[in-house]
Write a structure and sequence with these properties.
Chain B: Keywords: Amino-acid transport, ATP-binding, Nucleotide-binding, Transport. The complex is a heterodimer of chains A (about 300) and B (about 240). Chain A has about 300 residues and is mainly α. Chain A has eleven helices and four strands; from the N terminus they run H-H-H-H-E-E-E-H-H-H-H-E-H-H-H. In chain A, strands 1-4 form a two-stranded antiparallel sheet. In chain A, strands 2-3 form a two-stranded antiparallel ribbon. Chain A is globular, with a radius of gyration of 19 Å. Chain B has a six-stranded mixed beta sheet, sandwiched between helices. In chain B, strands 2-1-4-5 form a four-stranded antiparallel beta sheet, covered by helices on one side. The longest helix of chain B is centred in the last third of the chain and has 16 residues, at about 170-185. The chains are: A mainly alpha (about 300), B alpha/beta (about 240). Bound molecules: adenosine-5'-triphosphate and magnesium ion (MG).
Chain lengths: ~300, ~240
């Protein structure tokens, strides 16, 4: 029982990070139909900022703020430089553009920083843990879960109670009509990227806090997972992204913990099979996006 | 007096498809204009291109003395021109009140927005009653009311309505046309695309009949009602 509870905490911590990343992908996809594979490189940028801030001896809170801000700025620049010129192109063109952006950034990290993994100095308290009865839970896990919950509450509030958030939902449902209301295309898309950058930055801090290292390809795996989570939840649906993130996190953690030793090798394929089975029963994902039906002018 | 909207040799293309092929027309302040024509005549293309949703291939559009031919859609609602598009296209996952709030998105003037809320809720008490409901759960007629109300939130001087009576029960259709007359009395100029020719001719001052992307007849609604072209257009012959 304790082992199960322990793993449940782990599942929430990992699933929460996937959820934040999947949300970042979904926010951008819902508005401009782009699956931004360079989302992972936003994470990597945050990771490197954390590393340099650690080397410079900055207080952790300031490092975190800088790392997250860096991802936001990078996301907005990415949109302005790489995605705006292909905004009206096909989904395939935008997808290839995002791969190109990801690869360019990876090469830059490899050549300007280091091809190898670098240690990130983290405050001691992150590796402490707290006892709850029979459970021993790392501070970094608690931090990840609390941060995820705070971010989800913030995002929900923003989307429901802020004019800019409501405009994003309107644009996601029917971009042309949203523009007709006076919602500026450039502003709402830049806003979506900024939000995705914020989510990637926060996810990066959580990710690095569990691993204390950063490398040029750091963002690749988590964003691939987040992409799977977004599809599992229903591509373009924000609630779906959250549900998919937590479900994928749970699948991975429980398989790692409870699959017999002989089968551990097949953990990832088995996990993906479970995802496919869910999609067989719910082809549009757990919580399909409402914009599926919305047509374009 | 200069017309509120003037459109000259207006063309709209979708790749090789020439949907609108050189039309000219004017709308004067306080008028109700009907734009008629069979399916595929180019009516929606005209409306959508006027507000920038599809590009204008060539021609010139002047609204309120300003050239708006190639303006982005988001600049037009604040300037006083908006469209309630074909098929209503309310934001189904937003509440009624959020839809209305979006209608006023481009407007800065707080008192104008407050006045728009009052006007819209007094025109459509049902929307006030249902303000927290998702727009997608409204009936077709209520969604049409919401689409018009949303357009009114920006306080337009010229309101374009693309098939506002489409798919509505006859009783509701009548309400829509009453609303059009009421809005005109409130000082809104209107251009209405309609399949419901009889109704459109009843409320409009002037009309244009479109076929194959061009105007085949235009004139007062009395003149149009008696034209052979109008009758043949709706029998499917060009
Ligand atoms: N997005 C588009 N791409 C290509 N062709 C289009 C597009 N929209 C409309 N058309 C074509 O342009 C022509 C005019 O269409 P439009 O929608 O303007 O007609 P309409 O008069 O509004 O018809 P309806 O009464 O059916 O609404 C038609 O031949 C149509 O097939
Ligand atoms: Mg039409």
């Amino acid at each position: 029982m304790d082992l199960f509870l322990q793993q449940t905490v782990n599942a929430f911590a990992l699933g929460g990070t996937y959820a934040l990343l999947a949300l970042g992908l979904a926010v951008v996809f819902s508005i401009m139909g782009l699956i931004n594979f360079a989302h992972g490189e936003l994470m990597t940028i945050s990771g490197y900022v954390l590393m340099y801030c650690g080397l410079a001896g900055l207080p952790f809170a300031i490092s975190v703020a800088l790392a997250i801000s860096a991802a936001v700025v990078a996301a907005v620049l990415m949109e302005r430089i790489a995605f705006r010129p292909v905004r009206n192109a096909s989904g395939a063109t935008m997808l290839v553009t995002s791969f190109a952006v990801a690869m360019i950034l990876q090469v830059l990290f490899q050549n300007l920083i280091s091809a190898r993994s670098q240690a990130v100095l983290l405050p001691q308290f992150l590796s402490d843990s707290i006892r709850f009865g029979g459970l021993i839970i790392g501070i970094n896990k608690i931090g990840a879960i609390v941060t995820t919950v705070v971010m989800l509450i913030f995002l929900d509030w923003f989307m429901k109670h802020q004019k800019a958030g409501i405009a994003m939902r309107a644009s996601a449902e029917d971009f042309s009509v949203a523009r007709l209301m006076g919602i500026r295309a450039n502003t709402v898309i830049a806003g979506a990227f900024a939000l995705s950058g914020l989510l990637a930055g926060v996810a990066a801090v959580l990710w690095v806090s569990q691993r204390a290292s950063v490398d040029p390809l750091m963002g690749f795996t988590p964003v691939l997972k987040a992409f799977i989570a977004a599809i599992l939840g229903g591509l373009g649906s924000l609630r779906g992204a959250v549900a998919g993130g937590f479900l994928l996190g749970a699948i991975e953690i429980y398989l790692a913990a409870f699959l017999p030793q002989e089968l551990q090798e097949f953990r990832d394929p088995i996990g993906l099979c479970l995802v496919v089975i869910v999609l067989l029963f719910r082809p549009n994902g757990l919580i399909p996006s409402a914009a599926l039906k919305a047509e374009k002018v | 007096m200069a017309p509120l909207l003037s459109v000259q040799s207006f063309h709209v293309h979708y790749g090789p498809v020439q949907a609108v092929r050189g039309i000219d027309f004017e709308i004067r302040e306080g008028e109700i204009i009907a734009l008629l024509g069979a399916n595929g005549a180019g009516k929606s293309s005209t409306m959508n291109a006027l507000v920038g949703l599809v590009p204008v291939a060539s021609g010139k559009v002047v609204f309120d003395g300003r050239d708006i031919t190639h303006n982005a859609p988001e600049t037009l609602a604040p300037a006083g021109l908006t469209l309630s598009p074909e098929g209503r296209r309310v934001f189904g996952t937003l509440s009624v009140a959020e839809n209305l709030m979006m209608g006023a998105y481009g407007i800065r003037d707080k008192t104008a927005i407050a006045a728009a809320w009052d006007r819209v809720y007094s025109l459509f008490p049902i929307l006030h009653e249902r303000r927290d409901q998702f727009a997608g759960t409204l009936s077709g007629g209520q969604q049409q009311m919401l689409a018009v109300a949303r357009a009114l939130m920006s306080g337009p001087r010229l309101l374009l309505l693309d098939e506002p009576s489409l798919g509505l029960a006859p009783k509701i259709v009548e309400q829509v046309f009453e609303l059009i007359l009421l809005l005109r009395d409130q000082g809104v100029t209107l251009a209405v695309v309609e399949q419901n020719v009889a109704m459109a001719l009843e409320v409009a001052d002037r009309g244009y009949l479109m076929a194959g992307g061009q105007f085949v007849v235009s004139g007062t609604t009395g003149e149009l009602a008696h034209s052979d072209a109008l009758h043949s257009a709706y029998l499917g012959a060009d």
